[in-house]
Amino acid sequence: MLWKKGMNFCDISPTCYAISVKKEILKRHIKNLMSSDKLAKTKSDEILPNVVSSHSSNMIKRAPGVDLTLQLNKAVNIDLAGSKINGIVIRPGETFSFWDAVGKITKKKGYKEGRVLKNNKLIAGMGGGLCNLSNTLHLLILHSPLEVTEFHKHSDALAPDEGKRKPFSAGTSVSYNNLDYRFKNNTDQNVQLIVRCEGETLIAELRSEKPYPYRYELFEEDHHFRMEGEVFYRNSMIYRNVFDAQTDELVEKEFVHKNHSKVMFDYDLIPKELIRK
Tens of pLDDT along 160-186? Predict the structure, then answer.
């Protein structure tokens, strides 16, 4: 492909794209070396007693047009990466880094080709499906007092909703190692991530030494689909309520995220009652 005005270097050819990726990885390595963040490194077989938040999701999607092989591979990838995270303890002042915990994704380590989002297109790629794992971790942290310090979003409309709509059912992007997911333990006690796969289900928990004084609840307002040009987007405003854990009294309503996601599935499957002009 010849270069055209307005084209990025990475769009010229696969070789240029690979060069761009390596450049970003190198930049991240340099940034990590210069960072003052203390990354969580300790893993423990002893599970902390208090469950702060938990989340489970089905890893395998079976639907017309969905490549089942890539879905099964995704489950393998999540299981491998999850085992690297399971049991990690984040002490007060420490930061959890998805890629520092998981490491580089390679075929030699057992990772397979799953579904990845690249340039707004769903394609097969090594380690595909790990965004499901990072998104699950993000949901745990949003239901806690911990501080998200790095977050990259992708479309929250990769597939039609299954059952009742849940805010942030998808949408946390990770790519080794320049797109990381990080959070900081800004509390006064240790916390721990527990991740395991049972059959086709991903189960994750955030645990602590003792209960926190507040609990958190995500909710969504103004959820709808709208066409912009020839493309549909899912739109909504995502908030979380903060409740006193003892009295269940509402303490605060916090803004979390403005959702504007390109729809990646068949437009005929968009609920008609949710389409606005």
Answer: 887 788 887 666 888 887 889 999 999
